[in-house]
Amino acid sequence: MMKFNYQAVNNEGKRLTGDITAGSPSLALRQLEQKGLTPLRLTEEQSKKRRSRRRLKAEELNVALYELATMLTAGVALSEAVAAQLKSAQHPVIEKAMEIMSNGLRQGQSFSDVLEASGLSLPVYVYQLVRAGEMTGALASSLKDAVDQMEYDRRTRDEMRSALIYPSILVGSGFSAVAIMFAFVVPKFTNLLEHADQLPLLAWFVLAAGQWTNNNATLLLAGVTLVATLLGLALSEKRIREQMINQCLHLPVLGTWLIQSQIAQWSKVLGTLLSNRVPLIEALVLSQDSTRLLRQRDLLERVTQDVRGGASLSDALEQYQAITPTGINLVRVGEKSGKLPQMLESLATLYDESSQSRMRRFLALIEPIAILIIGVMFGLIIAGIVLAITSANDLAI
Q1: Which pLDDT score, from 0 to 100, does residue 186 have?
Q2: Which tens digit of pLDDT belongs to each residue from 257-314?
Q3: Cα–Cα distance measured from residue 160 to residue 165, given in angstroms and rounded to the nearest whole number
Q4: How far apart are CA 203 and CA 35, in angstroms?
Q5: C-alpha dist (Å) from residue 2 to 9, 28, 31, 44, 46
Q6: Within 10 Å of residue 287's Cβ, how many Cβ atoms?
C-alpha cells in the first residue's frame, strides 16, 4: 500500500487537503471521487528517511514557492496556503521550512519575517520583493515575480552548465586517449632507447615520456587525484570561483559572453524589483549582488553611489561604461517615459539573446580547437614512434 497527499474540492467548492492510502494512484483517485471530492493534486508521499538523502534542487524550491504564489493569487488565505504546502511537501527541507512559516503565521508574524526565519536558501531580492508586496497589498504578484526571477536565474545557470558539458567530454576524452597511448602503447617501443644517442629528438622525447609514465604510474595517478581534489575544493569556495571566472573575462568571445549574461541577469533583477515598487537605491543595491563578476559588481557599486548622490541612472551607467550604449539609451528612454522597469526588461532580453549568440559562437570555436590540439598530440606521438622504428631499422641495416 502507498500513501498519497491530495488537494481536492468538495461539492461546496471548498478546498481540502489530506492524505489517503491506496494500492495505486488510480485507486486513490477513485476513493476521492467516492467521497464526493474533485482531485486537484495527488502526490505519493515518500518516507522521510528516503527523502533526507536527496539534496534539495533549485527547481523543487521554485515549484514549491510557485504553488504557494498560485494559491494566493486564487484567493486562498496565506495561512491555509502554507498549511497546504506543508502537507504536500516532497522534501524534508521544504517541509521543515513550511512548518516554521506556519507556526510563525499563527503567532501573528508577517510573511516576510517567517520566510527569512524558514532557513530556505533564497536570494536577497526575494525577501525585499515579499516585503514590498506586503506593503502594497500585492503579495501574490510579488511572490510570483520573485519565483519567476529565481527560475530565470536557475535556467541561466543550467544553460551555461549544459553548454559546457559537450566540450568538457570532448577535451576529457581526448586527453584520456593521449594518456592511454603514453601508458600502454609507447612503452612497447621503449627498448629502442638503447640507441638514444642516434634517435631523432622527437622520437627520444616520446619514448622517454612513455617510459617515465610507465615507471611512475602510481605517482602520476596520485598527482592527478591531488590536483583534481584541490581544484574541486577551490571551486567550492565562492571567492576563488568568482576570481577564476573573472580571469576568463580577458579571453576573446568567452569574456564578452560572461559579461553580457551577467548584465542580463542584473537588468532582470532590477526591473523586477522596480516593477514591485522597491525604491531605486535599494533595488540597485540588491540587484548588484546578482552578478558574480567582481569587476562588474565594482562598476555597479560606483553607479549606485552616483545615483545616491543625485545622478540619473543612465548618466551613472554611461560614466562608468557599465553597459553598452544601446542599453544606456534604453535606460534613458525608460527614465524619461516613466517606464524604467519595462525598459530594463527589454534590456535583459536584448543581452540574453546576445549572450546566447556568443555562447553558441564560443562552443563552435571550442570543438575545432580541441580536435586540433588532440590531433596534434596524437600526430606527435605517432610520428615519434614511427621515427624511432625507422631509426632502429636503419641501425639494423
Answers
A1: 79
A2: 778 778 887 888 888 888 888 888 988 888 887 777 778 888 889 999 999 999 999 9
A3: 9
A4: 83
A5: 22, 9, 13, 7, 9
A6: 26
Q: What pTM, to 2 d.p., does this model score?
A: 0.60
pLDDT, tens digit, 9 for 90 and up, residues 236-249: 776 776 677 677 76
**Which one, of 143, 148, 140, 144, lies nearest residue 73 by Cα?**
140
All three cell numbers of 66 = 510557485
What single DSSP character describes residue 397?
-
Alpha-helical (H) ranges within the chain are 25-34, 48-52, 58-73, 78-88, 92-106, 111-117, 124-136, 139-180, 201-215, 217-236, 238-247, 254-275, 280-288, 294-308, 313-320, 325-337, 340-396
| Residue 258 to residue 104: CA distance in whole angstroms | 41
pLDDT at 350: 85
In which region does residue 199 sit, left (phi positive, over 0), alpha (psi from -120 to 50) or beta (all else)?
A: beta
Q: Is the model more confident about 41 or about 330?
A: 330
- CATH fourth-level superfamily of 166-397: Type II secretion system (T2SS), domain F (1.20.81.30)
